[in-house]
Design brief:
Number of strands: 8
Largest sheet: 8 strands, parallel, barrel
Structural class: alpha/beta
Number of domains: 1
CATH architecture: Alpha-Beta Barrel
Strand content: 15-25%
Number of helices: 11
Strand order of the largest sheet: 1-2-3-4-5-6-7-8
Length: 237
């Protein structure tokens, strides 16, 4: 059974819409952790559109569950992560104009930067992961760069419009999860997964953790964070 990582970015999105104090993403993270989340995920973007530096500091201070800290290959944020020392750091692509992450990080293209940043964080005892499309050459590059975990991008699966398209994307995720596992990597998966489509991905035995954010936060608006996390946890089981 995969573990469940809950991304609380969009709690902060709602807060930042009015530049208010509420809703508090740290409080939401603590409820999620108490309700079954195995890890808490947050992404400190370069434009600080949702999560703020102070949120990360408070999450690291207050959480008893591991923090998975997402970031771009940004020197300032890498330095910040090295100081805060979350258990996990994950490199993701980032564009200022995107609504959300549009694909996996191109490890082949940015290999030297990924390898250098990975070594920098590993020296601080941080476990480094990379968010990649389910493509063999990207997985191979991640290994060479020193990553210990890969997170397979499930967006194309979650957004597929037909049953055939969904099955095709699911098969690709499964093949690459199996391949990565044979190479000694820990395999995570996430992005765009919803309550209605998470089960088939959760059944892939090579996947150690699913990281899910928007659908849980959206559901929490009507039923509360605790119930939203518990419902997703049951589906993942």
């Amino acid at each position: 059974m995969p573990k469940l990582g809950v991304n609380i970015d969009h709690v902060a999105t709602l807060r930042q819409a009015r530049r208010e104090h509420d809703p508090d993403p740290v409080a939401a993270a603590l409820i999620a952790a108490k309700s079954g989340a195995n890890t808490i995920v947050c992404h400190l973007r370069e434009d600080r559109r949702h999560i703020q530096d102070k949120d990360v500091i408070q999450l690291k201070k207050k959480l008893t569950k591991p923090l998975n800290f997402e970031m771009a290959l940004n020197a300032g944020i890498i330095k910040f992560a090295a100081r805060i020392k979350p258990k996990y750091c994950m490199f993701v692509p980032e564009k200022r104009t995107e609504i959300t992450t549009e694909g996996g990080l191109d490890i082949v293209k940015y290999f030297r930067r990924v390898k250098t940043a990975t070594a920098q964080l590993a020296k601080k005892g941080i476990i480094v992961s990379v968010f990649v499309d389910p493509v063999k050459k990207q997985i191979d590059a991640a290994i060479k760069a020193g990553a210990r975990i890969i997170e397979l991008h499930t967006g194309p699966y979650a957004n597929a419009k037909t049953k055939v398209g969904k099955q095709k994307q699911l098969a690709k995720i499964k093949r690459m999860a199996q391949y990565a596992k044979t190479k000694g990597l820990i395999v995570h998966a996430g992005h765009g997964l919803k309550y209605r489509d998470v089960k088939p991905v959760a059944r892939i035995k090579e996947i150690d953790e699913l990281n899910i954010g928007h659908s849980i936060v959206a559901r929490s608006i009507t039923v509360g964070m605790a119930k939203a996390v518990r419902e997703m946890k049951r589906l993942v089981k």
